[in-house]
Amino acid sequence: MDMDTVLTVIQMLFFIAMIVLSVYLIISLNKITSSVKTIENEVADVSNSLTPLLAEVSEVVKDVGVLSENIKNDYAKAEPVINDLIEKGKDLSNVVGKVKDVLTGVTKSVFPVVTGVTTALKFLKK
User: Fold this and answer.
1) pLDDT tens-digit series, residues 85-108
2) Domain that includes residue 42, residue range
């Protein structure tokens, strides 16, 4: 074999390898394109599913804002009443304490009187 024949065979092998690699590249690109299209379709489906969900979430957030504002208003109305009840409770506690002190004093005063009257009645009965 001479050098020209060897070079021709090498060139043929090189071109065959190039053709095989080109076919493999085309097949790979087709698979990649198919995968990308599938992913693109799935992303579109997810996007279409999320749009109504986001609208619902937006409505829920608005409703929560309204509820929060209503609670703030109700608390603002109830706070003075609650504070007034607390003050009235403290005043009532003070009054009960004073009544207890007075009753204790009266009891201490009445007990000797009752004892004296009882003793007097016993003495008179004899």
Assistant:
1) 999 989 888 888 888 888 888 777
2) 1-126
Task: Print burial letters for 99-123: b (CB count within 10 Å at least 16), e (below 16).
Answer: eeeeeeeeeeeeeeeeeeeeeeeee
Predicted TM-score of the model (pTM): 0.43
Instruction: Count up the domains in the chain and report the number.
Output: 1
DSSP helix/strand/coil, 1 = coil
Q: Which amino acid is at 97?
A: G
Q: What is the largest CA-CA distance in the chain?
A: 166
* DSSP track, 31-56: HHHHHHHHHHHHHHHHHHHHHHHHHH
Gap between the Cα atoms of 118 and 113, Å rounded? 8
SS3 111: helix
d(CA 69, CA 111): 62
How far is 100 from 114, CA to CA, in rounded Å? 20
Please write down the long-range contacts of 19-26, taking CB distance under 8 Å and 24 or more positions apart: none
